[in-house]
Amino acid sequence: MATLAVGIDVGTSSVKAVALKRTGSGYSLRSVGQADIRRSEFHPEESPQAIAEAPLRALERVSQDSAFSRKPCAFAVSGPRVAPRLFKFPSIPKGEVEQAIRFEAEQIIPFDLAQAALDYVLFDEAMEEGKPVMEGLVVAVHKEEVDKRYVLLKSAGFDPVVLDIDTLALANAYSETEGLNERETVALINIGARFTNLSILHGPRRCFVRDIATGGDMLSRAISEIYGLDLPQAEKRKREASYTPLDDLEGGGFADDFGGGGGGGETEGFGDTEGFEPIDDGNEEYVLLDSDQTGFESGDTMSDADDFEASGQTQSGMDAAQRISANRAVLADALGDLISEIQDTFKYYINRRIIPRVDKVRLCGGTAKFPDIQEFFASQLGVPTELWNPFARIDVGGVAGKYPPNFLDELGPMMAVATGLAMRAL
């Protein structure tokens, strides 16, 4: 099986590309590329034609890097025209499995299978009431969605040969870089602009996935509503809170250098959502503080001005706490529905004894760099939460000199899907 080596992730707000080489000890990074996709809601000055062509233009910028152009690559799709479903039926001979899965898919897939690309994966055989059962995941993708993405990639100079879905590419990147043990359940949450990909891995052979129709755009809308900014201004302020743009890099590998919060907090149990009340002073500066600059730890508690003075805290310390509270107010307003959907998904699998619990959460995607988001997810989900960077377990020494210091560390969390695609095999 030859390693494919190139993964292209076409998201709503940007294109991400990763080229890898398999080595004796794992993988080494050959190149990385990223280009923003200009969108009408945040760039109203652009013509309709320019907006329609924006994904192609972003792909063309990335394809300037010879590591990607004309190379066989894997690509992925997500959203409402992607239907992953679990299936289970009594154990049958291997020769009958495909027909049985297709019959099962016809009952559970929400569109005509004649218009879909279909594939499946079998989990390890399980026992129920003393009898063996076959379990797995079947995925249907509407052919129009596949054709549209294929034509777009070909037009930009890529050679797309393998189709995947975002959630499974995410799971692939984690299992290849971090590994999984039989008793551990990990939830991967990739927060995109319009969709969030959720992959729940229970041991090395069981994966449960879904796309949730909300994401980082809701942060921009929350900032807009809370602080009275128009959407382009709110998007700009959100990005200022999360990262510092870098100059274009050689070879199509231009990206944004993310700054932002440290590790997530830990809580016990899987509890109900606790909201955060916004600070009602209308000062948008409170949104924009990186929590690493405050000295305020995730375990600290809020108090009023007298409490800060009594404990020897300075006015700047109080301001830092207020700013963190404001960051979390925006997160609660913007991502409350996402948290509820994730909680419901956890409860569904736990209540049906498909998984025993969720042991840890790993966040990725551009929005995962927003200040205080890791602590916010940990407190809401009741599960230890950290930022996940797939590049941390990949050899980047051969290309590190091409990029500014810490660039790959900061870029890595938004490259998880592209990394998992690059790890696919022909």
Mind explaining what this structure looks like?
This protein is an alpha/beta fold. It has a single domain, classed as ATPase, nucleotide binding domain (Nucleotidyltransferase, domain 5), CATH 3.30.420.40. Helix content is 33%, strand content 24%. It has eleven helices and 16 strands. It has helices spanning 48-63, 97-108, 143-155, 166-177, 217-227, 231-242, 305-310, 315-351, 373-381, 407-411, 416-422; strands spanning 6-10, 14-23, 26-36, 72-77, 82-90, 116-122, 126-128, 131-142, 159-165, 185-191, 196-202, 207-212, 243-245, 256-258, 360-364, 385-387. A five-stranded mixed β-sheet has the order 3-2-1-4-9, with helices on both faces. Strand 15, helix 9 and strand 16 form a beta-alpha-beta unit. Helix 5 crosses helix 8 and helix 8 (315-351) crosses helix 9 (373-381). It is globular, with a radius of gyration of 22 Å. The model is unreliable at 244-318 (pLDDT under 50).
CATH architecture: 2-Layer Sandwich
CATH C-level category = Alpha Beta
Q: What is the overall shape?
A: globular
Q: What strand order characterises the main sheet?
A: 3-2-1-4-9
The CATH homologous superfamily name equals: ATPase, nucleotide binding domain
Count of the separate structural domains: 1
Count of helical stretches: 11
Beta-strand portion reads 15-25%
Question: What is the helical fraction, as a range of percent?
Answer: 25-40%
Number of strands: 16
Please report the distance between the alpha carbons of the first and last residues.
Answer: 6 Å
Order of helices and strands: EEEHEEHEEEHEHEEEHHEEHHEHEHH
